[in-house]
Design goal:
The complex is a heterodimer. Chain A is mainly α. Chain A has seven helices and four strands; from the N terminus they run H-H-H-E-E-E-E-H-H-H-H. Chain A has a two-stranded antiparallel ribbon. A two-stranded antiparallel ribbon of chain A has the order 3-4. In chain A, helix 1 runs antiparallel to helix 7 and helix 5 packs antiparallel against helix 6. The longest helix of chain A is centred in the N-terminal third of the chain and has 56 residues. Chain B is of the alpha+beta class. Chain B is 61% helix and 10% strand. The chains are: A mainly alpha, B alpha+beta. The interface between A and B is large, with 59 and 65 residues.
C-alpha cells in the first residue's frame, strides 16, 4: 500500500486527538473524583446515581421524622408520669382517709386535695405539644376533655413514616388513658364521685369502695406509660437502623459513583506517557523526507 | 534512412513530453494538501511514422487521474453512516443540559422533595409554613417539568432550522452536480491542458458531500454522466437535477421532487432508525423519534403524577373544610402534559385549602391524605410496571444509553471512514517522495533531450561546414 503525505498527516492528527481526549477524560475523573461526569457515561451508573439521590433525600426526611416523634413521645412520657404521680398521691390520701381513726381535718384536706388534683389532671389531659392538643386524636384544635370529663376528641391514631415503608403511631388518644374507654374508668368522673363520697354520711366506707376504681385508673396510666416506653425504644432502635442505612448508602455511593483515586491517577499518568510517546514518534516520523537528502 | 531533421524532431518531442510530465509533477506537488485531489499521471507513448515502422519520438497520449471507483464508493457509503451519527450527535450536548441528573437540581431530586414535603406535612398537617413549603416544592417540580419539556421543544426547533439549511445545501449540490456533468461532457482533450481531471475531482467532491447528507447511490452512464438515485427515485440525470423541499410544518417534512417531476414525502424513509442514511436523516431521527419519545415519557410521568395526586387530594379536606379541589391544575390530555403541569393557583393563593384530612370533623390533625400522597412515592405500580422515580430513571437511563452508544458508534464509524479514506488515498493521494523521484526522472530526461538537440545542432553545423 502506498503511503501518501495526506494520510500520514491525518493519521498523526487523529492519533494525537484520541490521546489528548483520553488524557482529558482521565484528568476529569481525577479532578471531579466521580466515575462519570456526564450522562453519556455508563448508563447503569447513571441509574444507580438517581436511585441513591432519592434514597438519600428520603433518609434525611426520616431522620427528621424520628427526631420529631422522639420529642413528642418524651412529652407524652413526662405528661403520663405527672398524671401517675397525682393519682398515686390521691390513692395514698384515700387509703389514709379510709382508716377509721381519721378526723374531719383529714376530710377537709381530702376535699382540697381533690379540687387541686382535678384541676391538674384536666390541665395534663388538655396539654398541648407544638400548639396542638396531645390527647384529642386528629381533632388537635379541640380541647380533648370538658371540665365534666366528657371526651371531645376522636379516636384516630395517626401515623408517620419512620423508615422506608415502615410506619408508626404518632399519637395516644386520651379516650382510654383519661376517659376510660373500653371498660376502664373515667378519671374525672371518679374524682367527682370521690368529692360526693366525702360529703356523704359515711365517707370512710364510700371511699374504701372507690379504691378499686382508683387502682383501675392507675393501671390505665401504667399501661399507657409502658406503651410510650415501648414506642420510645422503637424510635431509638429505628434511629440506629436509619444510621445503618445511611452508612450503607454512603458506602454504596462511594462504591458506585466515586472514582478510585489510585487507579484514576495511574490511568492519568499512563495516558500522559502515551501522549508524550506518541508526540515524540510522530515528530520523528513527520521530519523524515526525501527532500533532506536531495542537494 | 533517417534525416537529421527527423532526429531534430525526435529531440523536440522528447523536450515537449518531459516538460509536460514535469508540469503534471508540479501540479501534483502543489495539490498535495488539496482535499479530494486525485494525483494525475501522464501516459507517454512512442510515436511511429505513418506508413513506416521507424520511431519518430514520444508523445503524451493521456493525462489521467489515478482513481478507483470502488474505493470512492466505499468512502461515500461510510460517509453516509458517519453523517447519520453526526446529525444525531448535534443534540447530545443539549440533551445533557436539559437533564442535569448527575447534579442536584433535577426532576428526580424535585420528586423526592415533593413527596418528602408531604411527609413533613404528615408530621404537622396544620402548620402554615409546612403547607407553604410543600406548595413551593410542588411548584419547583412543575417548573422543572416545564423547563425540560420546553428545552426539548427548542432542541427540536433548532434541528428544524438545521434540517432546512441542509436541505437547501443539498439542493445547491444537486444543481452543481448537474452543471459539472454538463461541463465534463464538453471536455474531450485527454492529452491537453483541459483533461477535465480537476472537474472530475470536483464532481467526486460534490458526490461525497451529498453522501454525507443523504443516502444516495450513484451510477455513471454511457455519456460519462454521474447520476444520483435516492430511495429508488432518480434525483440527478445527466444535466438535469431534481430538488428537495423542507415543508413549513412546525416539524418540517422533507419532500423529494425527482427528475420526472414526481414529488413524495421521504421523511419517514429517512428517519427510520437505519444507520446509513446521512446527516439529514440523523437529525430527523433525533427530532421525530428520540426526542419525541423522551417528551412523551415526560408527558406520561407528569400526567400520571398530576392525576393520582389530584384523585387523592380532591377526596380530602382542607383546613377550611372544603373538598373536591385539585392539587395540580387538571390536564386535558397526556400529550404536552409535562409542558403544562402547574400547581393549582387556588392553593398557591390559599395554602389552608391544601387538603390533608380524610375526616372533615378532624381537619386540624388528620394527616391521612398527606400520608396517602407521600405513599405514592413508594408505590411501584403508579406508572404501570414502575413507580415515578423508576420510570424517570428509566427515561434518563435510556438517554444515557443512547448518548454513550452514539459516542461509541461515532468513534467506530470515524475509524471506518478514516480507514476507507486511507485506502482511497493510497491509490489517489500524492506522495511527495514519489513526486520528487519523478521530478528527478523527468528532469534528467529533459536534460538528455536538450543534449540531443545540441548534438543535432553540432551535426548540422558539421554538415554545413562541408565545402
Amino acid at each position: 500500500m502506498r503511503v501518501t503525505d495526506s494520510t500520514l498527516f491525518q493519521k498523526v492528527q487523529a492519533q494525537l486527538m484520541a490521546r489528548k481526549k483520553a488524557l482529558e477524560n482521565a484528568s476529569e475523573t481525577v479532578t471531579t473524583g466521580k466515575k462519570i461526569n456526564r450522562l453519556e457515561g455508563d448508563p447503569s451508573i447513571v441509574g444507580e446515581t438517581l436511585r441513591n439521590q432519592r434514597e438519600e433525600a428520603n433518609l434525611e426526611r426520616y431522620e427528621k421524622s424520628l427526631e420529631g416523634l422522639g420529642n413528642r413521645y418524651m412529652s407524652y412520657e413526662s405528661n403520663i408520669q405527672s398524671t401517675y404521680d397525682i393519682l398515686a398521691r390521691l390513692k395514698s390520701v384515700m387509703v389514709n382517709l379510709s382508716n377509721p381513726s381519721q378526723d374531719s381535718d383529714a376530710r377537709t384536706d381530702m376535699t382540697n386535695e381533690l379540687e387541686q388534683a382535678k384541676e391538674s389532671l384536666l390541665a395534663l389531659a388538655n396539654e398541648k405539644y407544638n400548639g396542638q392538643y396531645m390527647y384529642s386524636g386528629a381533632r388537635t384544635d379541640v380541647e380533648p376533655f370538658a371540665p365534666d370529663g366528657t371526651y371531645q376528641g376522636d379516636s384516630l391514631v395517626l401515623e408517620a413514616e419512620i423508615l422506608p415503608g415502615v410506619k408508626m403511631e404518632k399519637n395516644i388518644t386520651g379516650e382510654e388513658l383519661f376517659g376510660g374507654a373500653g371498660g376502664g374508668q373515667n378519671v374525672f368522673q371518679l374524682i367527682d364521685e370521690l368529692q360526693a363520697a366525702i360529703q356523704s354520711g359515711s365517707p370512710q366506707e364510700e371511699i374504701r369502695n372507690r379504691l378499686d376504681d382508683m387502682d383501675a385508673v392507675i393501671e390505665q396510666t401504667i399501661s399507657a406509660r409502658t406503651e410510650v416506653g415501648v414506642r420510645l425504644s422503637r424510635i431509638e432502635s429505628s434511629k440506629n437502623n436509619l444510621a445503618q442505612l445511611q452508612d450503607n448508602l454512603a458506602f454504596k455511593r462511594q462504591d458506585t459513583e466515586d472514582a478510585d483515586y489510585v487507579s484514576a491517577l495511574t490511568d492519568y499518568q499512563s495516558q500522559e506517557l502515551a501522549l508524550q510517546a506518541s508526540m515524540q514518534v510522530n515528530a520523528d516520523l513527520l521530519g523524515k523526507s526525501l527532500m533532506d537528502f536531495l542537494r | 534512412m533517417a534525416s537529421i531533421t527527423d532526429i531534430l524532431n525526435i529531440a523536440r518531442s522528447g523536450i515537449q513530453v518531459q516538460s509536460k510530465a514535469l508540469r503534471i509533477t508540479g501540479q501534483n506537488v502543489s495539490n498535495v494538501n488539496t482535499e479530494g485531489y486525485s494525483r494525475q499521471r501522464v501516459d507517454i507513448v512512442s510515436q511511429v511514422a505513418a506508413g513506416s515502422s521507424s520511431g519518430i519520438g514520444a508523445s503524451v497520449s493521456e493525462i489521467h487521474r489515478v482513481y478507483d471507483s470502488f474505493l470512492e464508493g466505499q468512502v461515500n457509503r461510510n460517509l453516509s453512516s458517519y453523517g447519520f451519527l453526526e446529525g444525531r450527535q448535534l443534540v447530545a450536548s443539549n440533551l445533557e443540559s436539559v437533564f442535569p441528573e448527575l447534579g442536584d437540581d433535577n426532576i428526580n431530586a424535585s420528586l423526592s422533595d415533593f413527596f418528602n414535603a408531604f411527609r413533613t406535612l404528615a408530621d404537622n398537617p396544620s402548620g402554615v409554613s409546612e403547607r407553604q413549603v410543600a406548595l413551593n416544592t410542588a411548584e419547583t417540580l412543575a417548573n422543572r417539568f416545564n423547563r425540560a419539556y420546553n428545552s426539548l421543544e427548542s432542541i427540536q426547533s433548532g434541528l428544524n432550522t438545521n434540517i432546512r439549511e441542509n436541505v437547501s445545501e443539498a439542493n445547491g449540490l444537486l444543481r452543481e452536480l448537474a452543471d459539472l456533468n454538463k461541463k465534463i461532457a464538453t471536455v474531450n482533450d485527454p492529452s491537453g491542458e483541459s483533461s477535465g481531471a480537476e472537474l472530475r475531482d470536483r464532481r467526486d467532491g460534490v458526490v461525497r458531500q451529498l453522501s454525507e447528507m443523504l443516502p444516495i447511490s450513484t451510477f455513471t452512464d454511457g455519456d460519462g454522466h454521474v447520476n444520483v438515485m435516492l430511495d429508488r427515485q432518480v434525483l440527478v440525470q445527466g444535466v438535469q437535477a431534481g430538488t428537495l423541499t423542507a415543508t413549513n410544518d412546525p416539524l418540517a417534512r422533507v419532500e423529494m421532487t425527482g427528475v420526472g417531476g414526481v414529488s413524495r414525502d421521504i421523511t419517514q424513509y429517512l428517519a427510520e432508525d437505519s444507520e446509513d442514511r446521512g446527516r439529514i436523516a440523523g437529525m430527523l431521527a433525533e427530532r421525530d423519534v428520540h426526542i419525541e419519545d423522551t417528551k412523551s415519557r415526560l408527558d406520561q410521568l407528569a400526567f400520571t403524577l398530576a392525576e393520582q395526586v389530584n384523585t387523592l387530594h380532591s377526596a380530602a379536606f382542607g383546613l377550611d373544610g372544603g373538598t373536591g379541589r385539585n392539587f395540580f391544575e387538571p390536564l386535558a390530555a397526556v400529550d404536552g402534559a409535562a409542558g403544562r403541569i402547574r400547581v393549582s393557583q387556588e392553593l398557591l393563593d390559599n395554602p389552608e385549602r391544601l387538603a390533608l384530612a380524610q375526616d372533615p370533623l378532624s381537619l386540624d390533625g388528620d394527616n391521612r391524605a398527606a400520608m396517602a400522597i407521600a405513599d405514592l412515592e413508594s408505590d411501584d405500580a403508579t406508572m404501570g410496571s414502575a413507580g415515578f422515580h423508576d420510570y424517570f430513571a428509566e427515561t434518563i437511563g435510556e438517554i444515557s444509553g443512547r448518548l454513550s452508544g452514539l459516542n461509541a458508534d461515532m468513534e467506530y464509524q470515524g475509524m471506518v471512514v478514516d480507514q476507507s479514506e486511507a485506502f482511497r488515498a493510497s491509490v489517489s493521494g500524492v506522495s511527495i517522495d514519489e513526486e520528487m523521484v519523478s521530478l528527478i526522472q523527468f528532469q534528467r530526461a529533459f536534460e538528455a533531450s536538450a543534449k540531443m538537440l545540441s548534438t543535432v545542432d553540432e551535426m548540422l553545423s558539421t554538415v554545413l561546414q562541408i565545402k
